[in-house]
Design brief:
about 130 residues; four-stranded parallel sheet; Rossmann fold
């Protein structure tokens, strides 16, 4: 008889980012990728939320924390999650960090600023 090993683990922290065509969308996207590389959470598919893809919805429902990162004041990431029925998630809007649409070219400085604040929000969320 072999011992059974639990395959369960902690539910992931999921990161949904604007990846829009504006400069701040690129910054939000790159910050989310940086957070994933550094192990703060896992970037997940915002289009899958918008399309109500069942596997993506189920994984999101099981998340220990959710962070939406929006590049501009349209808050598309936040609105997609809300329209799909999610609430109580952390939200970061780049304008809150002084990064403005049309005036924030993607750079290590801006990406690191967003990633740093997002990591704080994820840590506080769970």
């Amino acid at each position: 008889m072999t011992a059974q090993v639990c395959q369960c683990g902690a539910a992931p922290k999921l990161i949904f980012s604007c990846s829009g065509s504006a400069d701040v969308g690129a910054v939000a996207d790159q910050a989310a990728r940086k957070l994933t590389r550094e192990g703060h959470g896992k970037m997940f598919c915002l289009a899958g939320i918008g399309g109500r893809v069942s596997g993506i919805m189920k994984n999101t429902e099981a998340a220990s924390a959710i962070l939406a990162i929006d590049g501009c004041s349209l808050n598309c990431a936040r609105k997609c999650l809300e329209e799909a029925g999610f609430s109580g998630f952390a939200h970061l809007q780049l304008a809150d960090l002084g990064l403005e649409k049309g005036g924030t070219p993607p750079s290590d400085v801006s990406i690191n600023l967003v990633a740093s604040r997002a990591a704080e929000l994820l840590a506080a969320a769970g």
